[in-house]
Amino acid sequence: MSTWANLGLQDSASPLMEQLIFFHDHALLILVMITVLVGYLMFMLFFNSYVNRFLLHGQLIEMIWTILPAVILLFIAFPSLRLLYLLDEINEPSVTLKSIGHQWYWSYEYSDFNNIEFDSYMIPTNELTTDGFRLLDVDNRIVLPMNSQIRILVTAADVIHSWTIPSLGVKVDGTPGRLNQTNFFINRPGLFYGQCSEICGANHSFMPIVIESVPTNYFIKWISNNLNS
Ligand code: CUA
Questions:
Q1: Which atom of ligand 1 is nearest to the CA of 198?
Q2: For residue 64, what are the domain limits?
Q3: Where are its TM segments located (predicted)?
Q4: Cα(85) to centroid of ligand 1, in Å?
Q5: Predicted pLDDT at 52
Q6: Which pick of 21, 45, 179, 185 has the fewest CB atoms within 10 Å?
Q7: Pocket of ligand 1 (CB under 6 A)
Q8: What is the pTM of this model?
Q9: Same domain, 211 and 129
């Protein structure tokens, strides 16, 4: 999760988020190089000694500063496309979770396991325990196994919501009448927090998402406990 003074991306907990961070750093590096070069050029204009005041054309420099930016853009475009298709790839998921956005809470269904279903509401500030995170913790967490491919199906019952977890690199809109799909792989245990990120109404800020990533045997135990009850 994000903590105080964290202005960058959150620590990644999935291979896809790792790739997204690599791409962000790559694009930022190119951006910095361009900014420094253009900044230097603009600064040097202040000290122009007018030695080239009879210069009317320069075919070579025109060629260079047309083609070079195009090539630089390709260096961003190709990794971007690679990532775009990588994010959409589904690799034989072992668990499927369906999440439905409502005004203003999420509900979940484990369709593989006798359709275990529950609602997940934010814990209001006045009911928060000392170890809880304000505006971020929920009453019923999603429990998912780590080190396995997980498919997420996202939809909504009323208006558009967005199921977003920054540390996993997941952001999918839940749209009424449509079923969107994505997948991820959590590579460590822990709690992963997310929030709705489509402006869905008055309590848009108060429908967080919490994933409890656990080892597979714990997940099986959790599933069988819920099947019995
Ligand atoms: Cu649901 Cu914003």
A1: 2
A2: 15-48+56-88
A3: 27-51, 63-87
A4: 26
A5: 84
A6: 45
A7: 101, 104, 161, 196, 198, 200, 204, 207
A8: 0.88
A9: yes
Residue 146 has pLDDT above 90, yes or no: yes
pLDDT for res 229: 66
103 and 83 in a single domain? The answer is no
Looking from the CA of residue 156, the nearest atom of ligand 1 is 1
Dump pLDDT digits (tens) for 103-113.
Answer: 999 999 999 99
In angstroms, the CA 188 to CA 202 distance is: 34
DSSP type of residue 53: T
**Is residue 7 situated within a structural domain?**
no
Nearest-angstrom CA–CA distance, 217 and 225: 12
For the stretch 53-66, pLDDT in tens is: 888 999 999 999 99
pLDDT tens-digit profile of 160-183? Answer: 999 999 999 999 999 999 999 999
Distance 157 CA to ligand 1 centre (A): 12
Number of domains in the chain: 2
- Same domain, yes or no, for 139 and 218? yes
Helices (H), 45-136: 59-88
Return d(Cα 27, Cα 30) in angstroms, integer.
5
Same domain, yes or no, for 114 and 23? no
